[in-house]
Amino acid sequence: MLRAMVRDLRAHRGRLAMTLAAIVLGVAFVVSTWVMSDSTARGVGDTDLRSDVDVVVRSPERGAVLAPADLDRLAELPGVTDADGVLAGRAALVGADGKLVPGPHDRAGTGWDDTGRFALTEGHAPGGPDEVAVHTDTGLSTGDTARVVLGDGREVRATVVGTFTFRTLGLERAPTLAWDADTALALFGRYDRIELTGHDIDVPAEDGWRVDTGAALNDEVRADAEASARSTKESLLAFAAVALLVGGFVIANTFTMLVTQRVRQFALLRAVGATRRQVRRAVLGEAAVLGIAGATIGTALGVGLGLGAVALSQDDATFAVSPLAILAGYAVGVGVTVVAAYGSARRAAAVAPVAALRTDALVPPRRRIRVGLGIALLLAGTAMVAATAGADLDTTSRVVGLAGGVVAWLGVLVLAPELAGVLRPVVRVLGRFGGPAVRLGGRNAVRDPRRTAATSSALLVGLALVCAFATLGETMVSMFGSTVRATVPESTTVLRSASGDEPLATDVLDRVRDTPGVTEAAADRYGFVEVTHAGVTSGTTVSAIEPDAFGTVLNQEVTVGTGDLDAGFVVGSNQAAMLGVGLGDEVTLDFGEETVTRPIVGLHTTTEAQPLFYLDVAAAPEWYRERVTSVYATGPDPAAARAALDAAFADRPDVRVFDREGLIEADMGEFEAVLAVMYAMFGAAVVIAVFGVVNTLALSVLERRREVGVLRAVGASRRLVRRTVRLESLVICGWGGIAGIMVGVLFGAIMQHVMLGRPLFDITVPYQVIGVSLAGMVGVGVLAAVWPARRAAHTDVLSAIASE
Predict the structure, then answer these.
(1) 112, 165: one domain
(2) 3-state secondary structure of 76
(3) pTM to 2 decimals?
(4) Which of 625, 657, 689 is the last residue of a domain?
(5) What 3-state DSSP class applies to 551?
(6) What is the pLDDT of residues 495-525, one digit of tens each?
(7) Are 400 and 521 in the same domain?
(8) Is residue 212 in a domain?
């Protein structure tokens, strides 16, 4: 049996190549993902960390609060041979456009020292208040003038006299700018930390300082790098899993076609004594051989793609190819291929020996079991979604709803051959108005619904994912816009940091209040904290804001209770449902060093784009009150107030002034960029699905070689044959595209319902994505048919119609 299978593989090299290509694509995607994440982790782990610091002392409070007197005290401790104070403070570099360069600025400014942290690459160290050294990543060179905005809103200018690279300690972020020690102390006032070198250093515990060893901080960096790489790998492998799912459909469909074409061969083997088990093992052995070959090629390709992607994305790339990446490639290649071929192996083993006497032998279908399973999955999934279709879902309901959508999706895939039957009346109608090519192509497409469904299922999965996330994305964009319009009055002017998510300078709110024409102003301090109730802790978002902001600069609708922040929290209704709390219940917000426990006094209509908790700013920790993320302002004449604010902050590179629509446009830009990346990742699955169409059509042409020969013998031209295959491809791709779009939009509706807490069908349909998808399916249908149509048109008539 093994020799027979090997000879068959050698005899059909084209069929072998098409099957291998399907395996190679899926394996390459997984291995390249693994290599990229391993290389990223290795790159962070290989960072030149400082190892010359024994103990690091930091204040228990946030910010740089250690004074020179603290440095002197610590330097006198027993065992300390050297003590260095590290100055750090907020310092934002102004770009060529007059606004802050995006990026973290919280500790971007520091003081120059000779501890080995700095390595000059050009120029010399700063020596006065008018000189500064900059990190090589800033793009500035010696002789340039650096404009810098400090944490209190002051702007300073200094000449760049040197550029440097930086050796970090622990999770320290490399600074952007460095002044001499005296200037930095005058600018920032206190030390961020004090580094001690020596032996057996014992820092007094009663001072309340946070004390860590340098080795422990560096171990924290390595652990964080591994966690980040693991998270990246998991995210990318999710996309790889989708590609594998689609590739599994392609491989399974390929083996189904191969088994169908070799029914007589299997029957002859059964007739000469082969058992069902031998036939099944032979087909699985063939799949394993193809899986090993495809995994070998795919692993090599994946390693090359992964290393190439790392080299393009990182200046100082670190390459890593772990044994796990290689093992994953082979596990995927062999495992997916064998699993995909198992159904075909069972059908091959079920061929009766008498089928060897028939020229049109077919594998017996198992329709009843498939239909029953598909209906059960579809009904169960629909019931799960319907049961969780209400508002204010708790965590369990959200999980059940999303799982129901997945189960219903699986039901659609299982029932795909039956659903493909709807093509028959469509083909009949088209046949009445079309020519011979339309009738023949349509009939070929619907002749074997199982083959049509298997071919189109790969497209269905790929397009469904694209349309699902497009529906979720468009709904989020629409939701955010409508939420901002409902919450922020048109008369309100909004001020944000020009650097992105960084807090505004501490003087912005006071300056807004002092602007002529502004009579109402409030600040939003938005952040992520932990909320605890009844011993259960989870993450949430909170906005600390002035109580009089509601009804003046903000229109936050409170549906239950009161919006009086003086009395307690105002919480989103969805968040309250997830926590299992209501009016009067006390919950605790954990801000790190401090906690705030208050009762819930009101529930507001909310979405995930809004803060889930509103808190009176007076009750927030002092450090949190200074983290102003947005300022809202208005006056008796809103237009005049807006013009006055534009003028007041025209010279401030750290502040951007928005009207309501401008705020929506700015916030949605980054989100839409993330969606574009997701579409590109899912596009890999669509590419694999397109290959599956080409593969199936080519095998279908081989399967119908005699039929094509007879067609040519009775007068069909090569052009007619090409058009017939092309129209068959269009029907298959069109069916897969339309079904994928419908499933994707419905699944997107479920996703936005469980993730955003909106009504199930309160969605924004992504018409642009749908239009591009439909047009793409037409293009795919035409391109996928090029080679199979040419092969069919050049079929040798005499050899095709000859009896086997």
Answers:
(1) yes
(2) coil
(3) 0.68
(4) 657
(5) coil
(6) 998 877 778 888 899 999 999 999 999 999 9
(7) no
(8) no
